Amino acid sequence: MKKKRKMRSNRVFFSLVFIGLGFIIAYSYQLANEENEGIQMTSNQWERDQMLRDQLVEVEEKNRGLQHELFEKQEMVQDIEKGFAKEEQILYNLAEDTEKYRMYLGKVKVKGQGVEVILEDSEYNPDEDSANNYIVHEHHVFQVINELFISGASAISINGQRLTHNSYIVCNGPVIEVDGFQHPAPFVISAIGDAEVMASALNLTGGVKDLLVNDNVQFSMEKKPEIVMDPLLGS
């Protein structure tokens, strides 16, 4: 009877031991799995972070390459803009020169400030041998015109007739001919340009005005805020 009770006690003991051992094993297994999962998650996260870092480095390298390419394009654009600026300046200069040539040729209407010079014959003195000493001759007109051109006149007319680069003036008795057209005295010479400069040049001591007065030519001059000259007609 005692032997049977002892055997039952042993069975209960071993049962409890096995149950506890099984619980320990199960807990250890679960803990190991959780640790493995943690390690696996940590490893996956590191791989993902590394991949993102590699992608970031790749993007930064592409950005640097694009920046270098952008700088090169900007330099090319700047060179092109400089070329356009030079071409624009050249075209502007050509247009300006063309306008000047048209103006000198009398092909366009011009206006601007300037001076108006009037040359008149002096009163005839019967005691003098010749009346030619009291009239305006072509060389008197030439003296005024040459001084005006030297002083920067851009356009000149005589009695309203524009002068061109190949105009001619000849004396024909009491009148002068300008390009074949006769003009009697007084001769009104109009010039467009810097009025102050041209007036000062004509009024120089011993200059054109004094020479004309000594030749008995009546000389008068007026500064004009605006002078208008129409273009030449015909060929």
UniProtKB/TrEMBL annotation:
GO terms for molecular function: RNA binding. The keyword 4Fe-4S does not apply. The keyword Lyase does not apply. InterPro entries: DUF881. It holds the Pfam family DUF881. It comes from the Bacteria. Signal peptide: none annotated. Keywords: Coiled coil, RNA-binding. Residues 49-76 form a coiled coil. Belongs to the UPF0749 family. This is DUF881 domain-containing protein.
